[in-house]
C-alpha cells in the first residue's frame, strides 16, 4: 500500500487569519522572525500498485474535494 500526501495551502494573495494569529502568538512567546501560513495535510492510502493513473486520481480528488482551488493551491507527493 502506498501513501500519497496532499498539502493544501492558501494561495499567496489570500489572507491567512489563522496563520497571522499563530505568527503573533509566536512573537509574544519570544520567537521573533518566524512567519506562519496555516494549511491542511491529507494522507491518502492507495491500495495496490501506485500507477500514474492512480496518482492522477489522487490529484483529481485533491482538485475536486480536498482543496478549494479558487483560494488554495495543493501539492501531491508520494511518501517514501
UniProtKB/TrEMBL annotation:
The top EC class, named as a word, is ligase
Where is it chiefly localized? cytoplasm
The pathway this protein participates in, as annotated, is:
Purine metabolism; IMP biosynthesis via de novo pathway; 5-amino-1-(5-phospho-D-ribosyl)imidazole from N(2)-formyl-N(1)-(5-phospho-D-ribosyl)glycinamide: step 1/2
The subcellular location is:
Cytoplasm
Residue ranges of the TM segments: none
E.C. designation(s)? 6.3.5.3
Q: Could you tell me the keywords of this UniProt record? A: ATP-binding, Cytoplasm, Ligase, Nucleotide-binding, Purine biosynthesis
InterPro entries registered for this protein in UniProt: PurS, PurS-like_sf
What catalytic reaction does the record list? Answer: N(2)-formyl-N(1)-(5-phospho-beta-D-ribosyl)glycinamide + L-glutamine + ATP + H2O = 2-formamido-N(1)-(5-O-phospho-beta-D-ribosyl)acetamidine + L-glutamate + ADP + phosphate + H(+)
Q: What GO cellular component entries does it have?
A: cytoplasm
Q: Drop me one GO molecular function for this one.
A: phosphoribosylformylglycinamidine synthase activity
Query: Which Gene3D superfamilies does its entry note?
Result: Phosphoribosylformylglycinamidine synthase subunit PurS (3.30.1280.10)
Q: Which Pfam families match?
A: PurS (PF02700)
What GO biological process terms are annotated to this protein in UniProt? 'de novo' IMP biosynthetic process
Family affiliation? Belongs to the PurS family.
Entry-linked NCBIfam families:
phosphoribosylformylglycinamidine synthase subunit PurS (TIGR00302), PRK05974.1 (NF004630)
**What is the role of this chain?**
Part of the phosphoribosylformylglycinamidine synthase complex involved in the purines biosynthetic pathway. Catalyzes the ATP-dependent conversion of formylglycinamide ribonucleotide (FGAR) and glutamine to yield formylglycinamidine ribonucleotide (FGAM) and glutamate. The FGAM synthase complex is composed of three subunits. PurQ produces an ammonia molecule by converting glutamine to glutamate. PurL transfers the ammonia molecule to FGAR to form FGAM in an ATP-dependent manner.
What do we know about how this protein assembles, alone or with others?
A: Part of the FGAM synthase complex composed of 1 PurL, 1 PurQ and 2 PurS subunits.
What name goes with this protein?
Answer: Phosphoribosylformylglycinamidine synthase subunit PurS
Record organism: Micropruina glycogenica
- High-level lineage: Bacteria, Bacillati, Actinomycetota, Actinomycetes, Propionibacteriales
| Underlying gene | purS
Amino acid at each position: 500500500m502506498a501513501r500519497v500526501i496532499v498539502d493544501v495551502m492558501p494561495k499567496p494573495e489570500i489572507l491567512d487569519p489563522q496563520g497571522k494569529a499563530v505568527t503573533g502568538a509566536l512573537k509574544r512567546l519570544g520567537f521573533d522572525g518566524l512567519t506562519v501560513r496555516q494549511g491542511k495535510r491529507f494522507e491518502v492510502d492507495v491500495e495496490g500498485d501506485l500507477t500514474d493513473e492512480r496518482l492522477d486520481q489522487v490529484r483529481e480528488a485533491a482538485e475536486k474535494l480536498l482543496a478549494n482551488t479558487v483560494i488554495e493551491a495543493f501539492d501531491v507527493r508520494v511518501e517514501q
